[in-house]
Design goal:
Shape of chain A: globular
Number of domains of chain A: 1
Shape of chain B: globular
Order of helices and strands of chain A: EEEEEEEEEEEE
Number of domains of chain B: 1
Number of helices of chain B: 0
CATH architecture of chain A: Sandwich
CATH class of chain A: Mainly Beta
Radius of gyration of chain A: 13 Å
Strand content of chain B: over 45%
Oligomer: heterodimer
Helix content of chain B: under 10%
Distance between the termini of chain B: 37 Å
CATH architecture of chain B: Sandwich
Helix content of chain A: under 10%
Distance between the termini of chain A: 41 Å
CATH superfamily of chain A: Immunoglobulins
Structural class of chain A: mainly beta
Largest sheet of chain A: 6 strands, mixed
Radius of gyration of chain B: 13 Å
Structural class of chain B: mainly beta
CATH superfamily of chain B: Immunoglobulins
Largest interface: A-B, 23 and 25 residues
Chain lengths: ~110, ~110
């Protein structure tokens, strides 16, 4: 069955530091992959998506992610974190019927 | 920018009662979804809906659940007889096509007492 693994439950980084959130997926064919962000009390906002083509995808708010088929990974990166980036981040895979399969999420805290 | 809206933001109900959660998807979208997130757990897919019928559902979506598009704008999730374990955040989403980005509403927090 399709699954998404986010190995880090909680990460703390200093403001201005770089960030990498890990994600591994399990799927036979090339998956549709997404990163969503959820701020406290807010809904889920799409950061970026990968369907096909260029394996490095750019998203909103300065985020990017790289699809690596050999590692079954789709890690999210940002070169310099801002305090407003503190939120929960979900790596998501698209199912064949449109259903999304979520990872457990990584909570990001940002130290001043 | 168009967005998905959900009402109410918080619903408290007694066990055994029926609840209806409401969603207004983005107006030109054709695919509609419900997901839920039990506190501390993953967001889980419940059901997808297209062309006035269910296109896919998970094993969570049993006979106690139903969905409906009663008019051209609303999309509802009904839980017939709520259980304590139905307490969760329920998210509605919509998309233009089955492979397109799903846009999520802010969620309805359901508390079953």
């Amino acid at each position: 069955a399709q699954s998404v693994t986010q190995p880090d439950i909680h990460i703390t980084v200093s403001e201005g530091a770089s960030l990498e959130l890990r994600c591994n997926y399990s799927y036979g064919a090339t998956p549709y992959l997404f990163w969503y962000v959820q701020s406290p009390g807010q809904g889920l906002q799409l950061l970026l998506k990968y369907f096909s083509g260029d394996t490095l995808v750019q998203g909103i708010k300065g985020f990017e992610a790289e699809f690596k088929r050999s590692q079954s990974s789709f890690n999210l990166r940002k070169p310099s974190v801002h305090w407003s980036d503190a939120a929960e981040y979900f790596c998501v895979s698209g199912g064949s019927q449109g259903n999304l399969i979520f990872g457990k999420g990584t909570k990001l805290s940002v130290k001043p | 920018e168009p967005e998905v809206t959900q009402t109410p933001s918080h619903q408290v109900t007694q066990m055994g009662q029926e609840v209806i959660l409401r969603c207004v998807p983005i107006s030109n979208h054709l695919y509609f979804y419900w997901y839920r997130q039990i506190l501390g757990q993953k967001v889980e897919f419940l059901v997808s809906f297209y062309n006035n019928e269910i296109s896919e559902k998970s094993e969570i979506f049993d006979d106690q659940f139903s969905v409906e598009r009663p008019d051209g704008s609303n999309f509802t999730l009904k839980i017939r007889s709520t259980k304590l374990e139905d307490s969760a955040m329920y998210f509605c989403a919509s998309s233009a096509s089955v492979t397109d980005t799903q846009y999520f509403g802010p969620g309805t927090r359901l508390t079953v007492l």
